Amino acid sequence: MIVPYECRCGSSYAPTADRWRCDCGGLLDLPLGAVRWPPRTDVRSMWRYLDAGDLPWRDVTLGEGDTPLVREDRELYLKVEFASPTGSFKDRGAVVLVALARALNASRLVADSSGNAGTAVAAYAARAGVAAEIFVPAGTSEKKLQQIRGHGARVTVVEGSREDTAAAAAARVEESGAFYASHVYNPYFHEGTKTYALEIFEQLGGAVPATLVLPAGNGTLVLGAHRGFAELRAAGLIDRIPRIVAVQSELCAPLAEAWTAGRDEPEPVRPGHTLAEGIAIADPARGSRILVAVEDSHGAFVTVGEDEIAEAHAALAARGLWVEPTGSVSYAAVRRLRAEGSSLVIGGPIVAPLCGSGLKASL
Ligand SMILES: [Zn+2]
Q1: For the domain with range 69-88+190-353, which CATH number is right: 3.40.50.1100, 3.40.50.2000, 2.40.128.20, 3.40.50.300?
Q2: Domain Tryptophan synthase beta chain-like PALP, which positions (predicted)?
């Protein structure tokens, strides 16, 4: 599974512990992989869908993936990603990054996160015996900080924006040579999040949903889900991919603004204070790729307001589902689009994830 990184400038690199971007400064990508189908039957976790090859995943796994797909009504399914080992879908990507760090003989790693990716990386690093330092922006919920520290990782709180936090982490990586377990820069994260798509395909008995409604901040789930269905399409197993409705907070919507304006790249925004802190990304590094993925799916971007997020959170709780506020945005978007009679949510199954546990952060 360890294949070379590629950059759009034409360079490629065999992964090493200290490689996280191209010498030209560009982002690293991975070519589409060959999908493993049917999945292996001797493993219950997300690893049933991956040809893990050289990755020492058995030393790191906590049984991530295999989350419930709950039927909410005739067409809507909710995927309970908060039933993941550390309480969020980020486990899917984090376990792959940490297994990669182990395979590359990294003794320490660095990550930056507004919370859930940091907690996931800290947990898997602890299990793998790799020292971890997690950079978080000031204001990150105390429960997430406790979780990161509990796993033995060092926490560095950065006074400043989410972007300042990433810059501080990157500087530490450069000075220390640590493995950068970045859910934004390392494309192996999407090898993990693509299993979200493969799992839905299997859970629906080989049916392709009409619509995936997904939160979008740094786009790790949008890019992963698109990748999973694109690999199924490339293998001839399906003839279309679901339309992807990517959801942002009205108070921080650089991707939705670029989509509406017809631009190829988002422009940085000044974020407001939103309940959806987990997707409040003012300047998403993979923005152009996220826009292309949504366009390829014949999907769209939508934004939801604070009241809609709070109402969706309460409506989910009334149905027995306790999610963190950010985890409510997909459901908020489904409610809005249905109320408007939008064509984006007709024509077959709709799947929306509940990304993080309500025990991590409250309204
Ligand atoms: Zn390059």
Answers
A1: 3.40.50.1100
A2: 60-355
pLDDT of residue 106: 97
Task: Tell me the CA–centroid distance for residue 173 and ligand 1, in Å.
Answer: 19
Of 184, 170, 255, 171, nearest to 218 by C-alpha is 184
- Distance from residue 13's CA to the centre of ligand 1 (Å): 10
Find out if CATH 3.40.50.300 is the number for domain 91-180. Answer: no
- Ligand 1 centroid vs 25 CA: distance in angstroms? 6
User: What's the mean pLDDT in 253-277?
Assistant: 96
**Residue with token string 């950079």:** 135
Average pLDDT over residues 202-206: 97
Angstrom distance (rounded) from CA 361 to CA 363:
7
Residues 102-132: pLDDT tens digits?
999 999 999 999 789 999 999 999 999 999 9
Predicted TM-score (pTM) of the model is 0.97
Q: How far is the CA of 243 from the centre of ligand 1 (A)?
A: 30
Ligand 1 centroid, distance to 341 Cα (angstroms): 44
6 alpha carbon to ligand 1 midpoint, in Å? 8
Judge if 69-88+190-353 and 91-180 fold alike in CATH terms: yes
Cα–Cα distance for residue pair 24/11, rounded to 1 Å: 9
Give the C-alpha separation, 98 to 94, whole Å: 6
**How many Cβ atoms are within 10 Å of 173's Cβ, its own excluded?**
23
**From the CA of 26, how far away is ligand 1's center (Å)?**
5
Ligand 1: centre distance to CA 12 (Å): 8
> Domain coordinates of the chain in residue numbers?
69-88+190-353, 91-180
Radius of gyration of the chain (CA): 19
Q: Is the peptide bond before 137 cis (omega within 30 degrees of 0)?
A: no
